[in-house]
Design the sequence.
């Protein structure tokens, strides 16, 4: 596992010539899209302002590769982890290693965030994860191509599948042999849990485990959703989609080789960045639904910042976290990178609204986003998600029929539950 952090090799120290009283705080930054630069620039600004140093550890772009490494560092009470970037689904798992931030952050700095994000950062009465940006699964589409083929933005998955095929076939006939209808995340990992919970939930198939902890995944809606997704492989999506994560699917779309892309909001920032080939050609919408009138179900993907309770630099770590998750920095990240603020008042900020036009176009996606069952399954979430994405991957690859796979999955989940995992 060492190779992923490559600890010293990947760590970048900012402000090497700091004064003797300065403290060095380690921070984890994601490496998807432009996020590393954004994070590094923010940390640099804090270092400059306070005279302290930051040691940045670059996380793998696929976040679930980072979780075991966090678990390792935190169990060892390592000093290489002060301020941590936390996926919303890790908060329950890591809670015992995290500082209670309600004791160190001003109340108003916490209350400035959307209540749902503050609730997600609170476990067993302890507030351990300050919201940093909010996210949901979105549908990016080639606006120019839908116009060319006179197709509306599809509302249901059936309509979507037809449109993706028609535009793909038209573009191939016109000479782009590499064109595909739909790029998404089909690799066997946490990202597939997100994609698949979106399909399942939009077919009224629930969220694997319901709010009370009951296992609900073995149902007809879920089977129909998986059957449909299996049908995309080799028709509107390449076989290789079974190995795509966020970044590989994004590169297919941004190279001009996909009509639709399911991804997170950051793709607005990357695809509409200066000199990008798709500037002005991309639209963003809520994901389609299983049947007319059903709710769109983007997966909720909020990111938080937390502090290791083993830190020896508590004050400096709190200062860095407050700066990174503060209003000015959230505003800069929204404008420069399309990261959606969690601070409610920034949604009235004209500069933010101008930079993120999709907030208006895809409003329902944010309003109706669906949470993975991490709160109710607590420390068992990882096992639940792994069992789910492996079963889904088997169906996508044609190794299993949806009904049989879901039945076996429900039985596996019962075992996990019985072992006292939730
Ligand atoms: C994004 C989301 C995160 C999710 C991950 C899956 O990083 O923010 O919540 O777990 O994608 O790959």
Sequence:
């Amino acid at each position: 596992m060492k190779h992923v952090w490559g600890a010293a090799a990947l760590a970048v120290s900012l402000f090497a010539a700091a004064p003797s009283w300065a403290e060095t705080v380690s921070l984890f930054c994601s490496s998807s899209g432009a996020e590393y630069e954004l994070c590094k620039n923010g940390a640099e600004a804090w270092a400059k302002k306070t005279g302290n140093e930051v040691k940045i550890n670059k996380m793998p772009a696929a976040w679930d590769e980072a979780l075991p490494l966090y678990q390792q560092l935190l169990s060892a009470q390592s000093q290489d982890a002060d301020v941590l970037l936390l996926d919303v689904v890790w908060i329950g798992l890591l809670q015992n290693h995290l500082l209670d931030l309600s004791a160190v952050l001003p109340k108003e700095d916490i209350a400035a965030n959307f209540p749902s994000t503050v609730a997600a950062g609170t476990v067993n009465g302890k507030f351990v994860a300050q919201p940093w940006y909010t996210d949901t699964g979105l549908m990016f589409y080639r606006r120019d191509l839908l116009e060319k083929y006179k197709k509306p933005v599809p509302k249901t998955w059936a309509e979507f599948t037809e449109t993706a095929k028609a535009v793909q076939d038209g573009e191939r006939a016109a000479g782009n042999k590499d064109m595909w209808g739909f790029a998404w995340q089909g690799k066997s990992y946490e990202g597939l849990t997100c994609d698949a919970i979106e399909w399942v939930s939009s077919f009224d198939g629930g969220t694997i485990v319901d709010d009370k902890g009951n296992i609900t995944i073995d149902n007809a809606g879920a089977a129909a959703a998986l059957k449909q997704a299996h049908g995309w492989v080799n028709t509107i999506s390449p076989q290789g989609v079974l190995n795509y994560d966020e970044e590989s699917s994004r590169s297919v779309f941004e190279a001009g080789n996909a009509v639709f892309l399911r991804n997170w909001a950051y793709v607005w920032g990357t695809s509409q960045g200066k000199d990008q080939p798709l500037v002005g050609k991309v639209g963003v919408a809520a994901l389609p639904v299983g049947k007319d009138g059903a709710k769109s179900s983007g997966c909720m993907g909020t990111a938080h910042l937390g502090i290791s309770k083993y830190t020896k630099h508590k004050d400096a770590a709190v200062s860095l976290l407050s700066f990174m998750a503060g209003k000015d920095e959230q505003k800069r990240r929204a404008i420069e990178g399309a990261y959606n603020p969690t601070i409610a008042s920034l949604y009235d900020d004209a500069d933010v609204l101008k930079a993120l036009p999709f907030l208006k176009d895809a409003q329902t996606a944010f309003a109706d986003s669906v949470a993975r069952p991490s709160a109710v399954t607590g420390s068992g979430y990882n096992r639940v998600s792994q069992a789910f994405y492996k079963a889904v991957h088997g169906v996508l690859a044609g190794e299993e029929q949806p009904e049989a796979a879901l039945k076996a999955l429900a039985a596996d989940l019962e075992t996990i539950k019985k072992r006292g995992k939730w």
